[in-house]
Write a structure and sequence with these properties.
Largest sheet: 4 strands, mixed
Order of helices and strands: HHEEEEEHHEHEEEHH
Helix content: 40-55%
CATH architecture of the largest domain: 3-Layer(aba) Sandwich
Strand content: 5-15%
CATH superfamily of the largest domain: von Willebrand factor, type A domain
CATH class of the largest domain: Alpha Beta
């Protein structure tokens, strides 16, 4: 799936965009029940006389009452639409909480530098970290424009001197570089900050 933020995804597939929010559905299957005198019209509104004629639905949010006039077929149509929307939301949630997205979220930037600070993790954790980085490289970095990797240490280690255009060869090269890293490397208490500053010094990186 494309790397789309949840806000952008909702703009495309949300209930409101597809006229499936509660207020939008109610306006299509009935009309609001009113008992008040409308000054601009100079008379009571027509729905005042709907008492007992239609099934009614009361909105908990604002207490408004709607008279339901739709035929069964239209209501069943909205049921089907809402069930489809629920299924789509479930698929989106499963996608968001799986694999690299569960760890890194959804990458939005077109140029990134991943700073690797492994600290003093045990060898097995070191391998798990590298597995996670490989996963994000293959699943998400392949969909952006440029990237680079920097390893925190007494002497910073870079995969490339500056961010590099994404290609299959570049990703494979980065994965190979990653798995050739030594488990332990000397680092000072300022090494992480220095690595972040180095990452931000790349002109192509916006954030």
């Amino acid at each position: 799936q494309p790397l789309v933020s949840s806000s952008k995804w909702l703009q495309l597939y949300g209930l409101k965009r597809n006229k499936l929010s509660l207020s939008q559905i109610l306006s299509q299957i009935g009309f609001r029940h009113r008992k008040d005198y409308v000054t601009t019209l100079g008379k009571p509104v027509a729905s005042r006389y709907a008492d007992g004629l239609f099934p009614q639905y009361k909105r908990a949010q604002d207490g408004s009452v709607y008279n339901l006039t739709a035929r069964k077929e239209l209501i069943l149509h909205f049921v089907d639409c809402l069930m489809g929307a629920i299924e789509l939301y479930q698929q989106r949630m499963e996608w968001l909480t799986s694999r690299s997205r569960q760890i890194f979220g959804v990458i939005q930037e077109q140029c990134i530098v991943i700073v690797l600070d492994f600290g003093t993790v045990a060898p097995i954790e070191f391998d798990l970290c590298r597995d996670a980085i490989c996963m994000v490289l293959v699943e998400q970095v392949t969909q952006i424009a440029k990237f680079n990797l920097i390893r925190v240490g007494q002497d910073l280690t870079k995969w490339q001197q500056k961010s590099t255009p994404v290609s299959q060869h570049a990703v494979e090269s980065a994965v190979t570089w990653l798995w050739k890293l030594d488990h332990m490397t000397a680092a000072s208490h300022t090494s992480s900050g220095e690595a972040l500053l180095e990452a931000m010094s790349d002109e192509a990186v916006s954030s």
